[in-house]
Amino acid sequence: VEVKIEVVIPEKERSKEEMSPNGKASPLIYKVNGTARHYHLEEHPIASNPYHNPKDVVEASVCHVKDLENGQMREVDLGCGKALLIKESGEFHAVGHKCPHYGAPLVKGVLSKGRVRCPWHGACFNISTGDIEDFPGLDSLPRFQVKIEKEKVYIRASKQALQTQRRTKMMAKCISLSNYNLSSTNVLIIGAGAAGLVCAETLRQEGFSDRIVMCTMDRHLPYDRPKLSKSMDSHPEQIALRPKEFFCTYDIEVLTEMQVAAVDVKSKIAVFKDGFKMEYNKLLIATGNTPKTLSCKGKEMENVFNIRTPEDANRVVKLATSKNVVIVGASFLGMEVAAYLAERAHSVSLVELEHVPFKKFFGERVGRAVMKMFESNRVKFYMQTEVSELREQEGKLKEVVLKSGKVLRADVCVVGVGAVPATGFLKQSGINIDSKGFIVVNKMMQTNIPGVFAAGDAVTFPLALRNNKKVNVPHWQMAHMHGRIAALNMLAHGTEISTVPYLWTAMFGKSIRYAGHGEGFDDVVIQGDLDELKFVAFYTKSDEVVAVASMNYDPIVSKVAEVLAAGRTIRKRDVDAVVFLSFRTGDMSWLTGKGS
């Protein structure tokens, strides 16, 4: 038997005749009652011959058909690039071998029930289509066609697809409508983070061809916000999620440095701070969080930062080099900033109210292990205290005074003491907001107001993993999924959110990966060696595993995420078996079925 794999190239950009009337993102604003149009496959058929340039095609023999058993993956080399060959349920599939998010090798990920999950950050891809099914990341994998002939496996693929290892799904564009209105749009998205961008892209992927407007207080197009604390010297263009040309091509308009001051849900009008008003038909609120500030004397002085923008992060790195840095708050942001600056600054001091970092999230034992790693990298901790005063000299920060009486030399201070939902402008709107300021949504990301959706860090939603308990999950992956679910339900798909929270943090070249929702855990079962920073921690509540974290134990977190996604329950007594079966033997048969 011979296996051949043939790449399926996504459709080329549509002709200019199918673009907006002016051949680029239309500046015209359409009436709210403009109808949406859905493209069908027969309108834009995929070419029968996917290889537009025969010279761009490569074919190579990679293995014998019997070399792969069911449930196995293999990274195969074609000479000018690699592909991921998969065998599941007796069928062969082939897709790109790298996760489009940060380039993780998918062969080290988890294969389960028709999809492969990234070992680093949990993104999931359909092995038949290559489509992204869970996040983070925006692009799908290139898909390769598999043919079986004789007893050798051949792959025939486009060199370009092998090199890029990513595929942007086909999208619609705006169509011309006869009547224009310069102050209205069909879909208005407040916020241009992951949730807002994924919402806009999903609408276009689903064939929505009316006007989409995103507005943001930021001066930049959507960017990879987690890198602000993990890669602080990155410039905006380096961390942009999409280039400017992308938004022009697909008619997604972004209004930068525009702040919404109020929303009139009865009239369906958003009022901007400068007085401009925009009518909408569907609304997504994805405004995220606002960092908390210090309440002590001197909080407004120069060189005291909340890192919110690329400019903030760049400025901190410049000012901190060979200087004294004080970081207030052992949050994810605070710890990541401390790790990034440790080798650049003269000194890094971290002030925290708890007695160990990450105690509420990772537990005391893991927190102490992380703290020890930081101390071995010259980070000094001042725990169980807080800042009482910031002192200046000639208008610039000189010292940070703690309530314990300790005085720290400081040229730069970074504040990472948490955040509050950026929903103050909605107080008089009639949109349901809880006592902490979070927007309350259902499983379809709908608020209590018809046509108004919310997503991202500013919402609480029912988490299936925790028996539909209303939770807030302010993490990058979840914001992506929120945006997708909101878009599908704007189009009346009736899709409910069903995903396992997944996050990561990076410090000193090491990553902690985490899946689940461990809020309220009452015990932590640890396998491995905390001192060697090679461990997996299972967070349990009433004998049930509700979350898992690991360091240097890939891909255990992605495997547990797949177990939880399949609706299975892991009991505390099963932890030893889970680690043995998934990590040591690689056996994933225990994923099948439902229940415990």
Strands, helices and their partners?
Blueprint: E1 3-8, E2 57-64, E3 72-77, E4 82-88, E5 91-96, E6 110-112, E7 115-117, E8 124-126, E9 132-134, E10 143-148, E11 152-158, H1 159-164, E12 187-190, H2 194-205, E13 212-215, H3 227-230, H4 244-249, E14 252-255, E15 260-264, E16 269-272, E17 277-279, E18 282-285, E19 289-291, E20 304-305, H5 310-320, E21 324-328, H6 332-341, E22 347-352, H7 359-362, H8 364-375, E23 379-383, E24 387-393, E25 396-402, E26 407-409, E27 412-415, E28 419-421, E29 439-440, E30 452-454, E31 459-463, E32 469-471, H9 476-490, E33 502-507, E34 510-516, E35 523-529, E36 534-541, E37 544-551, H10 556-565, H11 575-584
Parallel strand pairs: 1-11, 12-13, 12-18, 13-14, 18-30, 20-27, 21-22, 21-27, 22-23, 29-31
Antiparallel strand pairs: 1-10, 2-11, 3-4, 4-5, 5-10, 6-7, 7-8, 8-9, 15-16, 16-17, 19-28, 24-25, 25-26, 31-32, 33-34, 34-37, 35-36, 36-37
Describe the structure.
Residues 1-50 and 591-596 have low confidence and may be disordered. This protein is an alpha/beta fold and 596 residues long. The chain has 4 domains: 54-164, Rieske Iron-sulfur Protein, CATH 2.102.10.10; 170-292 and 420-500, FAD/NAD(P)-binding domain; 304-417, 3-Layer(bba) Sandwich (FAD/NAD(P)-binding domain), CATH 3.50.50.60; 509-592, Enolase-like, domain 1 (2-Layer Sandwich), CATH 3.30.390.30. The strands form 9 sheets. A 7-stranded mixed β-sheet has the order 2-11-1-10-5-4-3. Strands 14-13-12-18-30 form a 5-stranded parallel β-sheet. Strands 20-27-21-22-23 form a 5-stranded parallel β-sheet. The longest helix has 15 residues, at 476-490. It has 11 helices and 37 strands. Its main location: mitochondrion. One of its GO terms (biological process) is execution phase of apoptosis. Belongs to the FAD-dependent oxidoreductase family. This is Apoptosis-inducing factor 3. Induces apoptosis through a caspase dependent pathway. Reduces mitochondrial membrane potential.
